[in-house]
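Renewal narrative, Specific Aim 1. Our central claim is that a sequence can be written position by position from structural information alone. The example that follows is taken directly from our test logs and has not been curated for this report. It begins with the structure tokens describing the chain, in the order in which they were read.
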């Protein structure tokens, strides 16, 4: 039992670091892909056109991805970034499934959505300072 308590204590200390690494990776991915959606000559312009979406919708998705990605980097408002990005990624998953995609892509998107939903609920706990 002592070993289990030690492992739990180490994981508790490590959790904020792991959350920050995951957050930075997701934020980078969302900001980069969102910015690519704003390029009128890029891949996403043709993809959104092929899927039947309007130009304004591609731009909106790009803005939401960039904005949500930036919010993920600010701990106090990280949950807002997750709340913005989760429905965007659900829409991406539905679009990919309707218009054909490889299942690996769909599984990855499910992982992204689940992680973003976790970000919406994760609020770093404040550690109590001992009264000594």
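The sequence written for that structure reads:
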């Amino acid at each position: 039992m002592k070993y289990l308590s030690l492992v739990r204590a180490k994981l508790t200390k490590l959790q904020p670091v792991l959350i920050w690494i995951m957050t930075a990776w997701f934020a980078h991915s969302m900001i980069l892909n969102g910015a690519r959606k704003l390029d009128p000559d890029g891949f996403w312009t043709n993809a959104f056109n092929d899927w039947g979406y309007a130009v304004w919708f591609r731009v909106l998705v790009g803005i939401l991805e960039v904005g949500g990605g930036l919010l993920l980097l600010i701990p106090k408002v990280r949950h807002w970034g997750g709340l913005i990005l989760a429905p965007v990624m659900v829409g991406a998953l539905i679009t990919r499934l309707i218009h054909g995609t490889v299942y690996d892509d769909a599984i990855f998107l499910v992982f992204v959505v689940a992680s973003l939903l976790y970000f919406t609920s994760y609020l770093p706990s404040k550690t109590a300072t001992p009264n000594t």
